[in-house]
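Retro notes
What went well: the complex prediction finally ran end to end.
Inputs used:
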Amino acid sequence: NAGVTQTPKFRILKIGQSMTLQCTQDMNHNYMYWYRQDPGMGLKLIYYSVGAGITDKGEVPNGYNVSRSTTEDFPLRLELAAPSQTSVYFCASSYGTGVHEQYFGPGTRLTVT
Amino acid sequence: AQSVAQPEDQVNVAEGNPLTVKCTYSVSGNPYLFWYVQYPNRGLQFLLKYITGDNLVKGSYGFEAEFNKSQTSFHLKKPSALVSDSALYFCAVRDRRYGGATNKLIFGTGTLLAVQP
């Protein structure tokens, strides 16, 4: 049981480039989330999904897009990367209805220069 | 507005001493509260949660947390700190606007715990 996996671990992008951060979970969780973590700012929710085919914006969605074609995968797309998107990105998942904790992946450290 | 506050950016404690990491919340109704730990260059790991019932919640690695409704607090505690407990700790509350329909969490800004040998 691998839990939540993310690739890549590190990436450097030039301004204006695009990339996709991959996230996969093998726990059959319905809910999935993308966060960014900036120093001293805690975690901010970018997008979330409550099931395949259903996604919604979180607190800071601008500059990002997501899709959820399967229960397992929840990729995050960055279009036209900007320095403000330099951050550490975490994917998480949880069971559905009820009070459930979220399980986090190891993160992707992204630098945009 | 719902929020979580962790008033201390850093807590320093000597190994073997008790530790407390503070958390206060602001949410209408009954809160669902969580503590997570983040070791360097790792994702967040779940420690414990409060749903209802006993105000003292026991979790992983010997940690516990005390829910206090009148003070709107959910402080994390451990009777005897270890150097290996040094990490970043996050308190979170479930967003009541959506409840179990999304299980969205609102996180505090984190407290760095440093345990000295």
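What we learned: Chain A has one domain: 4-96.
What to try next: split runs per interface for comparison.
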